[in-house]
Amino acid sequence: MKMNLKTASFLGAAILTSCTLSAQSQSPAELNDLQIAHVAYIADNIDIQYAHLALALSENPTVREFAQTMVRDHNGVNAQALALLKKLDAQPQNNFLSESLQADAKGIINNLASLRGAEFDRAYAENELAYHQAVNGLIENTFIPNIDNAEVKALFIAGLEIFKAHEAAAKLMVSNVR
Amino acid sequence: MIANIWSAKVCRAVLGAWMLTLLVACTLTLPVTSSAFAESTNHLIEIKGFVYDPVTLNVNAGDSITWVNNDFVSHTATAVLASSQNEVSEVSNLQYWTTEEILPGGKETMLVEQSMILEYFCKYHPSMKASIARN
Ligand SMILES: [Cu+2]
C-alpha cells in the first residue's frame, strides 16, 4: 500500500513536471500541425512501450488483455497517421513537448520495471489511467482546436474517440486490480 | 437494314433462351428458397466511432449477423458473461459466443442460435456494449 501510494505520487509528479515546464517555456497551444503530429506519434509509442513492459512482467489477465489492446490500437493509429503524413508529403517535427513526454516516460518506465506482481499491476493500471487522461485532455482542449489541416484534425478527432475508450477501459482495470 | 433484321432475330433467340433458363432456374430454386431460406435474414451491424449500429437488433434463430468494422482499430463482438452468482445460475443454459478479431475494414459473420447470450461487448474496448433481442 505504501509502495502503491509512492508510485502514484511519483507518476503524478512526472505529469505535473511536464505541465509546469511547458507553461514556463513554450506553450503546447503554439505548436504547428507537424509538431502536433510528432507529439501524437511519440505519445502513441510511449504507450506501446508501457504495454510491452506489462506483457513482459504481468500475469494478470485483465492487465494483459488491456496491454495487448494498447499495442494493437496505438499501432493502428500510428499506421493511419503515417499514411496521412505520406499523403500530405509532410514530415513530423520534433519539439519541446515531444522531448518532455519522452523524458517523463523514461522515468516512469524505470520505476515500473522495478515492480513485480500485484504492485506492478496497480502501478501500470494507475499510470495508464493518468496517462490517457492527460493526453486526452491535451488532444481535446489544446490540439484539436489548434490544428489547421482538416484531414489532420479529422484524424485527431477519430483518435480521441479511441483514446477515450482506452481511458474508460483503464478505469475498469484500475478498479479490477485494486 | 439486313443487319438490323438479323440482329433482331438473334436478340429474340437470345431472349428466348434466357427466359427459358430463368423459368428452369425458378422452378428449381423456388421450393428450396421458400422452405429453407426465405425466413432467415442476414443482419448488418456497422461498427463506427466505437459504437455498434444498431445498438439493439431484433433477430430470429437461424438468421445471421454480420459486423462490419469501419474504424481503424480492431474490435470484437463477444457475449457478456454474467458476473454475479444469481445471474450465473439464471443464464447457465445460455451459450457463450464471440467473433474473431474484426480487423479495420473487415467483417465477421455469426449464425444466430436459439440459446445464445443476448448481451455483448467488445473484448478490446469493454465500454462498447450492445445487445440482440430474439423475436
Ligand atoms: Cu473495440
From TrEMBL, chain B:
Q: Which UniProt keywords apply?
A: Copper, Metal-binding, Signal
> Where, if anywhere, are coiled coils annotated?
none
Q: Which residues form the signal peptide?
A: 1-38
Identification of the protein by name: Blue (type 1) copper domain-containing protein
Which SUPFAM superfamilies does the entry link to? Cupredoxins
Q: Name one GO molecular function term.
A: copper ion binding
Q: InterPro entries per the record?
A: BlueCu_1, Cupredoxin, ET_Amicyanin
